[in-house]
């Protein structure tokens, strides 16, 4: 069996990948809704799945654990 190589990723790489994911989600949401705003539920789920490095986590009013 082949040896698995360890892949490391910098914070900058991780943030870039996350931003691409968020941009793609925005595009898909706009195509589905005609660019309507996210509901509060959708926004909370989105922050739970992939955080925006430019915004604080968790969103205001939520007490779930901070990412470490």
Strand content: under 5%
Number of helices: 2
Give the rounded overall mean pLDDT: 75
Helix amount? 40-55%
Order of helices and strands: HH
Distance between the termini: 34 Å
Task: Kindly provide the radius of gyration, computed on alpha-carbon positions and rounded to a whole number of angstroms.
Answer: 15 Å
Detail the poorly predicted runs.
none
Helix/strand-derived category reads mainly alpha
Instruction: Give the strand tally.
Output: 0
Main β sheet profile: none
**Given the C-alpha coordinates, what overall shape results?**
extended
Describe what you observe in this structure.
The protein is mainly α and 68 residues long. The protein has helices at 11-33, 40-49. The protein is extended, with a radius of gyration of 15 Å. The model has no long low-confidence stretch (mean pLDDT 75).
Topology readout:
Blueprint: H1 11-33, H2 40-49
């Amino acid at each position: 069996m082949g040896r698995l190589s360890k892949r490391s990723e910098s914070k900058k790489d991780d943030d870039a990948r996350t931003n691409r994911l968020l941009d793609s989600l925005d595009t898909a949401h706009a195509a589905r809704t005609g660019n309507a705003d996210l509901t509060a539920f959708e926004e909370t789920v989105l922050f739970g799945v992939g955080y925006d490095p430019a915004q604080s986590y968790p969103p205001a009013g939520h007490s779930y654990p901070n990412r470490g």
